[in-house]
Amino acid sequence: PSSRVSLTVNGERHTVTVDNRTSLLDLLREHLDLPGSKKGCNAGACGACTVLVGGRRVNSCLTLAVRLDGADVTTIEGLADGDQLHPLQKAFIEEDAFQCGYCTPGQIMSGVGCIQEGHAGSKDEIREWMSGNLCRCGCYVKIVRAVEQTAH
Ligand code: FES
């Protein structure tokens, strides 16, 4: 069975018909041509697919698209303001907070959520609240620094 879902993604309204089992991640990548959110584990373990729904972080691989009728979704593609990068995107560049870059969209979306949720008070707090985002290159020290610098 399939359903129609209307949602706003990065400020643009979309109405799509999807199989009821479609994840938000697949909706973004395959139906809306937004491949910035990455499919690492597809099982809620790595955080590479993190996006904001109503300003809160979710693992888009674990979120059913059909549950999001009327939702407001922000992905890495919608974070910059035109040519103006989001402060956390700038901080990732300044701090050199990535190597291969695969986890970076999820790290940045999670970092934005972490700051907005008020969980970026200290390095320890950031580490705790971003523990769902894995980085195989081991850039954690710089990622935490970038989030901390943006929050303060
Ligand atoms: Fe969603 Fe890994 S792809 S948590």
UniProtKB/TrEMBL annotation:
<dbReference type="GO" id="GO:0046872">
    <property type="term" value="F:metal ion binding"/>
</dbReference>
<keyword id="KW-0479">Metal-binding</keyword>
<protein>
    <submittedName>
        <fullName>(2Fe-2S)-binding protein</fullName>
    </submittedName>
</protein>
<dbReference type="GO" id="GO:0016903">
    <property type="term" value="F:oxidoreductase activity, acting on the aldehyde or oxo group of donors"/>
</dbReference>
<keyword id="KW-0411">Iron-sulfur</keyword>
<feature type="domain" description="2Fe-2S ferredoxin-type">
    <location>
        <begin position="3"/>
        <end position="79"/>
    </location>
</feature>
<keyword id="KW-0560">Oxidoreductase</keyword>
<dbReference type="GO" id="GO:0051537">
    <property type="term" value="F:2 iron, 2 sulfur cluster binding"/>
</dbReference>
<keyword id="KW-0408">Iron</keyword>
<comment type="pathway">
    <text>Alkaloid degradation; nicotine degradation.</text>
</comment>
<keyword id="KW-0001">2Fe-2S</keyword>
